[in-house]
Amino acid sequence: MKIGIVGLGLIGGSLALDLRRRGFEVLGVSRQSSTCEIAKTRGIVDQVGVSLKLLSGADIVFICTPISKIAPTLKKLIPYLSGETIVTDVGSVKMPIVQECSTLWSHFVGGHPMAGTAKQGIEAAQQDLFAGAPYVLTPTPSTPSTAVKQVEEIAHSLGSRIYYSTPEEHDGAVALISHLPVMVSASLLHTCLQERNSIVLDLAQKLASSGFRDTTRVGSGNPELGAMMARYNKGELLSSLMKYRNSLDMIIEVIETEDWDTLEQILESTKRFHAVSRRDTERVDKNAPKDGLLPGGY
Ligand code: NAP
């Protein structure tokens, strides 16, 4: 089977690496010829180029460009596809992409492999990035079941855990567990930047240890991707941020009123919720890359 990949960055390059190792013929297309060169030299793809024409023989195409370029890429790709070619994407937001792309191409299956690192570009591509990580598929009632099955089989071959949802539910869920944490983590870092006492700031930086690193890691990722998540998932992200603000206000109030019993009850309930959520992520943590960056990106 011939698999096409458009956008040879962290996600596209990592997908290409794994799929090639699993015996698929991988055709890669990227914007810059320098990226294509690296993909060829590293043996990430079988064939590579900057023209989408290369994908005319592909059975399935993964669009792995930045979110804003997914639908425009599909539009440019269509003249080279046969009617049966399956197209899927890896965008971190699903509603606007699925809405537009399903109208453009009947064999389009929305997808989101939920793995990543803080790095970007072809140099960051790595093997087994998706092993043990969730892979969400968001077909619509009109998506052909054969196309969905095919994407599911490929995602399964990567060692991912497959989940199905509607695009709307996907965006609501990732707003809560991915996009909100990015913004909260960024605002924690931003709070440090606002410290005017240079002695305190300097000491804080020296004292920052694993707790600070864990709570701020996702706020130090790819800024372009972070801004795009907010732009394309604005409604759900704002709703999550408002809920977060309410939680923060409640915690401020119990501390101001010295209601220590209520604070302890809140911390008990969050501890229980964390333990339940963690059960699902344990397999992902086991696959953490050696450099200490956990998979489970945007
Ligand atoms: P990335 O490392 O910056 O890679 C994106 C690649 O797309 C770049 O290498 C660039 O290739 C290429 N590109 C840009 N515009 C293009 C165009 N018009 N035509 C063809 N190629 C183009 O970003 P990424 O982290 O892999 O993210 C890619 C997608 O994966 C995004 O939609 C994102 O939402 C999704 N995603 C990201 C993560 C994560 O944690 N990073 C996780 C899951 C899903 P050149 O080098 O040739 O310019």
Distance between the termini: 28 Å
- Give the total of domains: 2
Helix content: 40-55%
Mean pLDDT: 93
Main sheet overview: 6 strands, parallel
- With helices defined by DSSP (H or I, 4 residues minimum), what is the helix count? 11
- Radius of gyration using CA atoms only: 21 Å
Q: Give the strand line-up of the largest sheet.
A: 3-2-1-4-5-6
The global form is globular
User: Which fold does the CATH topology of the largest domain refer to?
Assistant: Rossmann fold
**What percent strand?**
5-15%
CATH superfamily of the largest domain: NAD(P)-binding Rossmann-like Domain
Which structural class best describes the helix and strand composition?
A: alpha/beta
- Low-confidence stretches at least 5 residues in length (pLDDT < 50)? 285-296
User: How many strand units?
Assistant: 9
Could you explain how this protein is built, in words?
The chain has eleven helices and nine strands. The chain has 298 residues and is of the alpha/beta class. It has two domains: 2-169, Rossmann fold (3-Layer(aba) Sandwich); 173-282, 6-phosphogluconate dehydrogenase C-terminal like domain (6-phosphogluconate dehydrogenase C-terminal fold, Orthogonal Bundle), CATH 1.10.3660. It has a six-stranded parallel β-sheet, sandwiched between helices. A three-stranded mixed β-sheet has the order 7-8-9, covered by helices on one side. β8 (134-137), α5 (145-157) and β9 form a beta-alpha-beta unit. The model is unreliable at 285-296 (pLDDT under 50). Bound molecules: NADP nicotinamide-adenine-dinucleotide phosphate (NAP). NADP nicotinamide-adenine-dinucleotide phosphate binds next to α1.
